[in-house]
Specification:
14 helices, 14 strands, alpha/beta, eight-stranded mixed β-sheet, about 450 residues, six-stranded parallel β-sheet
Length: about 450
Amino acid sequence: MNILHYTLGLPPYRKGGLTKYATDLMMEQTKQHNVLLLYPVSSSMKPGIYFEKATSDIKVYKLRSYIPIPLLDGIKTPSDFMEKTGKSFREAVLSFLKREKVDILHLHTLMGLPFSFVEEMKKQGVKIIYTTHDYFGLCPKVNFINERGVNCENDSLCSPCNFNAPSTFYLRQIRNSSYLLRFKDLLKKIRSYIPVSSKEKRTGFSNEDEKKYAALRRYYIQILSLVDCFHFNSSVSKKVYLKYISPAKCEVINILHADIRDNRKKKQINKENVRIGYIGSSAPFKGLPLLLDVLKKIKENKINNWTLCIIGDFCPIDKEIAGHVDFRKSYNYENMESIFSQFDIIIMPSLCNETLGFVALEAISFGVPVLLSDSCGVKDIIGGITPDLIIKMNKETLFSSLDSLLKDPQSIESYNTRILNSDFSFDFLHHVGRINQLYEKLLDESFS
C-alpha cells in the first residue's frame, strides 16, 4: 500500500502524543509499505505540496497554505482558518497523487488542512481514515475547556474562550516558523509575559462573532464528512465526536507507542514516604492545581508521609507544601525506566476529556498504579485492572482517594500486584497490524 500520513510534523520540532504515535506507526509501516508524510506549513507564499526530504524510508512533503497552525493557542480570526486556495492548488494535489499513487490518507489532525485537499483525495478514490487525537475542528481551543478553565457547557460561545488568542500574524510568522520552532520554549515564555485582557473587555460579544465560529466548525465538519472511517482511540473520544458527526464507519482501537513495553516490576512501598508522580502540563484543565489543593488539605490533616514529583511545567507552590514538592524537566523515552522507578503511584487528575493518556500506559508498563480521572480515554485499557483507581475527578473524591492510599500504603502494593498479574498487551506491532487491517478493509468495498 501507498500510505500518506498527515501530521503536524516530526520530532524534535513537533512533540506530544500525536507526533509520537504517528511517527512510530509510520516507522513500523515502512517495513511493509510505501509511507509518506505530509505536514502543514502556514505561509503567505503560493499554496502547494513540496517535497522536502526522505528520512528513514519515509518521504516527507510539506503542504503550504495560508491556514495558520494554532496548536493549543486558540483562534482569534476564524475566517483566516478556512481555505483560501484556488484552481492551481487543486492541480498541485492532482499532480502529487499522480506521482505518488496514494491508496490511504491517514489524517492525524485537521490543523492547516484545506478542504480542497481532502476533497480531491476523495474524488480520486483515496480512502481516508481519521484518528481522533484531539477535538480540533469541533473546538478552536482543542479540548472543550472554556475561558474559566472548566469543561465547556455551551459550545456555541467560542468568542470568550478565544478572546486572548494570538493574532494570525503571530501564528504564521513567529509561532510556527520552521526556524523559530527550535526556540519554542523561549516562545512560550514570551507569550506568558503578554498581559491577559481584563474581564471588562471580555464582555459584549455579538451574535456576529459567534456566527464566525459556527461557520468555522461547519467548515471542519465538512472536512470530516469526507472521512471514510473514524479511528476513535478511546470510548471517550468516540462519545465526544458522535455529538457532532454520524460516521458511516468507525472503530475504537486504543493506541500506544513503540516505547511502551512490558517492564513491570514488583514494588515495595516505603510507608513513611509514598512517592507520588504528576507528569504533564500545569494548565488548570490537566488538574495539577486541583492536585496541589488536595495535597495542601492532606497536609493540614497531619498526613505527611508523601512527596510529589512534578515532571513538566513549573508553577507556584504554596509554602505549606513546598517542602514536599520537587520539579523536574520533561523526560526522554530513553530514560523512562529511571523516571518511573522513582514513583509509587502516578496521578492523572485531568478535568478535560482526554482522548487517551500515554502517561498512564507508560506507568502501567513499569508496574506503577495510576489514580485516574474518569474523563481519560485510557480508562478503556486499565479499567479492567484497577477500576477502583478510576474516579470522578473533583476535590472531594481526589481527597478521599489520596487520604485512603496514604493511610494504607500497602494498598498501593496490592494495586502493583494486580498490574503484574494482569493480561495487558504492550505489543505495538500487534497494534500496527490492526491499523493495517483497517486500511485493507477500507480498500475492500465490502467493508461495512
